[in-house]
Write a sequence for this structure.
C-alpha cells in the first residue's frame, strides 16, 4: 500500500495582497484532492484506525461520488464495522461505476465467499482471473479454486489451483489443496509431490499433518507417521484431525 503523504499548505502574506501576486493559490484540482483523501484513508485503514478513516472517505465521496476506489474502501470500512449490507452496497456501486475494476471484483468475490454465497462469488472471481494485468492474479486463481470446491466443481478447482501455481509457485494453500485432491483420487505420487511443495514453504497445520500421516501410511514411512501424529496430538489435541488421523497403537 502506498505511503500516505498529504501536505496542506496555507500561505499568509504580510501586508496587502495585490493583483500582481495573484492572491491565494487556486483550489487544487479535484483529482489531486481526491487522491489526497484516499491516500489518507488508506493510511488509517492500514493502521486499523477505523474511526479516523471514515472522514477522508466521506470527503472523497463529496469530491467524486463516482470514484470506484472510494466505494471499495468504504466497503472495507463497513465490513470492519460489521455492516455487511452497507459493504455490499458499496461494492455493487463500485462495480456499477467500473464493471472491470479488479479490486472491486476481488473484494466482492471474497465478501460473497465469506457470506457463504459461493455460487454468487464465482461470478466476480471468474471475471477477475481473466484479467492478465491484475497484479495478484495467482491469489485470485487460488480464491477461485477454493470457491469451486465449495460448489462441488472439483475439476474446475484443480485447474484454478494449477493456474495459481503456474503463476506463482509460492502459493502453499494451492499446493495443499492439490495434494488433498490427488490423495482422494488415489494419485499418491502426485499427492506427495504437491504435499512436499506445501511443506517447503509453509508451517504445518492440523489438516496438513493429517494428510502427511495418511501419505506416510501409503508409502510405509513409519517415522513420518509417528512424528506427525505426535505433533498433531500435542499441538492440536482438540482438532478434528487429531481424532481422525490417530496413529495405530
Amino acid at each position: 500500500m502506498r505511503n500516505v503523504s498529504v501536505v496542506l499548505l496555507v500561505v499568509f502574506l504580510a501586508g496587502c495582497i495585490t493583483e500582481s501576486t495573484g492572491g491565494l493559490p487556486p483550489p487544487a484540482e479535484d483529482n489531486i484532492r481526491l487522491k489526497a483523501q484516499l491516500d489518507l484513508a488508506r493510511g488509517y485503514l492500514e493502521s486499523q484506525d477505523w474511526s479516523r478513516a471514515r472522514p477522508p472517505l466521506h470527503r472523497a465521496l463529496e469530491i467524486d461520488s463516482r470514484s470506484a476506489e472510494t466505494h471499495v474502501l468504504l466497503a472495507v470500512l463497513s465490513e470492519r464495522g460489521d455492516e455487511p449490507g452497507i459493504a455490499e452496497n458499496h461494492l455493487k456501486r463500485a462495480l456499477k461505476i467500473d464493471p472491470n475494476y479488479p479490486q472491486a471484483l476481488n473484494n466482492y468475490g471474497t465478501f460473497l465467499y465469506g457470506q457463504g454465497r459461493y455460487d454468487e462469488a464465482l461470478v466476480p472471481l471468474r471475471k477477475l482471473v481473466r484479467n492478465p494485468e491484475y497484479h495478484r492474479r495467482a491469489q485470485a486463481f487460488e480464491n477461485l479454486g477454493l470457491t469451486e470446491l465449495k460448489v462441488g466443481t472439483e475439476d474446475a478447482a484443480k485447474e484454478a489451483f494449477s493456474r495459481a501455481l503456474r503463476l506463482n509457485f509460492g502459493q502453499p494453500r494451492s499446493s495443499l489443496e492439490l495434494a488433498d485432491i490427488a490423495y482422494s483420487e488415489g494419485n499418491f505420487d502426485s499427492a506427495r509431490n504437491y504435499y512436499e511443495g506445501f511443506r517447503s514453504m509453509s508451517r504445518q497445520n492440523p489438516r496438513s499433518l493429517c494428510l502427511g500421516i495418511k501419505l506416510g501410511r501409503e508409502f510405509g514411512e513409519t517415522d513420518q507417521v509417528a512424528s506427525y501424529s505426535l505433533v498433531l496430538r500435542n499441538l492440536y489435541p482438540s482438532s478434528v484431525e487429531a481424532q481422525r488421523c490417530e496413529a495405530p497403537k
Q: What stands out?
A: DSSP finds 13 helices and no strands in the chain. Residues 1-26 have pLDDT under 50 and may be disordered.
